[in-house]
């Protein structure tokens, strides 16, 4: 049998919790609060079916052909308008389509990370980002996340201690996994520190448009006057993740290089999907679609939080996010959420993501991430009450 000599960069890469959980989510029996799945009942199936048919019949010869690596110009123009609406001024050579925000994380890593470079991450942070950064051999530096975003004091110390920092990775709105949003003061302080230490900021913003409470805050990119912020957006949570369509906004020099790396990786996004989404946005008002998503997710979030309030012991804390798809539960330190999930699965077929996967460096075992967008109302109630019942036993 062949003995594989894998490249050094994949040493230590383990099967991820995300992969296992995506598999779990596919079991219809399991009440899965695990994945970051949008509610599939909200996918605009009829409208998409119509636009795909029109695209193939009316412009199939272009829509099924190769196109440019940067993506369909008409769709990029629409992104430019949407970005302008949130204060990000960009031109055609400063925006390109990518296969979801996830590809942006990989391509930005490939472009910037040399082995040993420090990458500063919120702790906890998005597991998928850690998976993207890791093969490029960075030194992960964790900065604690507080109720209003990254700790600025710790960030300052981390930047001083790590002069070889390449970028700070942040999810400013309804962070994955915690649901936390960064305050305006902290956005400004973060930008100012990044400028002082001459590091980049990677702003990952797939949930921004899913705000259903509180005040809209400027994106970090919109406050940037130095070309220091790379901004990632995605259609995954506002339309459908299966389209694999996202975008990156960055200075033209950076986009030029990302485009070369994307060419090497997958040539381009699906021409057909780009045409379909472009036509969808021409024919329908995507913002009214997003309104419906927001109403549904707010209802589900309120239902989940209310059930946590009535079912969980007082010693258990949870975030009450203003948008996005996740809440973060913190149990007393003696509760190990991996063990707890074995019980919730065995007794009630309830799954979540144990929090340990989201820590870039020092792991904490007493948290979990709970998604409220995917499950129907009755399963949210049943699942949260089941977790509450099981965890009550820990307090007897
Ligand atoms: C913070 C964050 N970034 C990026 C992604 C990747 O999303 P996609 O590649 O579907 O755009 C996700 C997905 O859940 C996410 O939560």
Automatic annotation (TrEMBL):
Molecular-function GO terms, alphabetical: transaminase activity
* InterPro entries from the UniProt entry: Aminotransferase_I/II_large (IPR004839), Class-I_PLP-dep_aminotransf (IPR050859), PyrdxlP-dep_Trfase (IPR015424), PyrdxlP-dep_Trfase_major (IPR015421), PyrdxlP-dep_Trfase_small (IPR015422)
The Aminotransferase class I/classII large domain covers 57-387
Q: Which UniProt keywords apply?
A: Aminotransferase, Pyridoxal phosphate, Transferase
Its required cofactor(s), as named, are: pyridoxal 5'-phosphate
| Transferase found in the keyword field | yes
- Protein's recorded name: PLP-dependent aminotransferase family protein
> Taxonomic lineage of this organism?
Bacteria, Bacillati, Bacillota, Clostridia, Eubacteriales
């Amino acid at each position: 049998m062949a003995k594989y000599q894998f490249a050094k960069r994949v040493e230590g890469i383990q099967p991820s919790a995300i992969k296992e959980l995506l598999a779990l989510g596919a079991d219809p029996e399991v009440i899965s609060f695990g994945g970051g799945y949008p509610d599939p009942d909200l996918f605009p199936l009829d409208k998409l079916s119509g636009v795909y048919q029109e695209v193939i019949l009316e412009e199939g010869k272009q829509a099924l052909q190769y196109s440019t690596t940067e993506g369909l110009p008409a769709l990029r123009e629409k992104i430019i308008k949407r970005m302008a609406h949130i204060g990000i001024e960009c031109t055609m050579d400063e925006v390109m389509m990518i296969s979801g925000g996830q590809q942006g994380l990989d391509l930005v890593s490939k472009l910037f990370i040399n082995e040993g470079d420090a990458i500063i991450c919120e702790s906890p942070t998005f597991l998928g980002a850690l998976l993207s950064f890791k093969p490029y051999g960075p030194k992960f530096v964790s900065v604690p996340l507080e109720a209003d975003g990254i700790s600025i004091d710790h960030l300052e110390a981390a930047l001083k201690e790590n002069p070889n920092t390449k970028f700070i990775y942040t999810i400013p709105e309804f962070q994955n996994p915690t649901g936390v949003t960064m305050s305006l003061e902290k956005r400004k302080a973060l930008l100012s520190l990044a400028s002082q230490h001459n590091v980049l900021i990677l702003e990952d913003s797939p949930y921004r448009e899913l705000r259903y409470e509180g005040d809209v805050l400027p994106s970090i990119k919109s406050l940037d006057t130095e070309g220091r912020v790379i901004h990632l957006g995605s259609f995954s949570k506002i339309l459908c993740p299966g389209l694999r369509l996202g975008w990156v906004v960055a200075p033209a020099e950076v986009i030029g290089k990302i485009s070369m790396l994307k060419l090497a990786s997958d040539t381009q996004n699906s021409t057909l999907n780009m045409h379909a989404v472009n036509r969808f946005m021409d024919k329908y008002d995507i913002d009214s679609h997003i309104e419906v998503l927001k109403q549904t997710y707010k209802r589900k979030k309120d239902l989940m939080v209310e059930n946590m309030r009535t079912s969980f012991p007082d010693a258990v804390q949870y975030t009450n996010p203003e948008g996005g798809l996740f809440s973060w539960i913190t149990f007393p330190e003696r509760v190990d959420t991996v063990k707890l999930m074995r019980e919730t699965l065995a007794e009630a077929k309830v799954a979540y993501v144990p929090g340990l996967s989201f820590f870039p460096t020092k792991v904490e075992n007493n948290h979990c991430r709970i998604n409220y967008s995917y499950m129907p109302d009755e399963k949210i109630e049943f699942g949260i009450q089941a977790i509450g019942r099981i965890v009550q036993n820990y307090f007897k």
